[in-house]
Design a protein that fits this description.
50s Ribosomal Protein L17, Chain: A; 5 helices; single chain; alpha+beta; about 140 residues
């Protein structure tokens, strides 16, 4: 029996599963939505919501913990500076899962996982000054 076993193994060993979920969370934060199987979407949602909650905390230890999972400094800064502030008045439930068709090859239930709010990309790269770019580089871990 699987009492108190919360991890869905997804047919993979630990390292492969962690890499899969990391890549899916990064894709979700990059594009705002991803198409995947229903079970992968449910497990990805758990990690994505943890990262957004850490972003709402906003402390240096929270950044370090998010960095342990995301392993990408730019993505950690994006979560903490752009994505988490959109959910400051919300207590959880940052994502939505839509069930889609069943995949033809193996009849797996497909799903669309999306963030409820996603930052718009209206700022052009030419508008950003070099000073802003330097500040962003040093912003990680609370450095000035």
């Amino acid at each position: 029996m699987r009492h108190l076993k919360k991890v869905k193994k997804l047919g993979r060993d630990t390292e492969h599963r962690r890499a899969l979920l990391r890549n899916q969370v990064i894709s979700l934060f990059t594009h705002g939505k991803i198409k995947t199987t229903l079970q992968k979407a449910k497990e990805t949602r758990r990690w994505a919501e943890k990262m957004i909650t850490l972003g709402k905390v906003g402390t240096v230890p929270a950044r370090r913990e998010a960095f342990r999972f995301l392993v990408d400094r730019k993505m950690v800064n994006r979560v903490f500076d752009e994505i988490s502030p959109l959910f400051k008045d919300r207590n959880g439930g940052y994502t939505r899962i839509y069930k889609l068709w069943r995949r033809r090859g193996d009849d797996a239930q497909m799903a669309l996982l999306e963030l409820l709010a996603f930052p718009s990309e209206k700022k052009e790269e030419s508008e950003k000054s070099e000073e802003d770019k330097k500040k962003k580089k040093k912003k990680f871990f609370g450095l000035k």
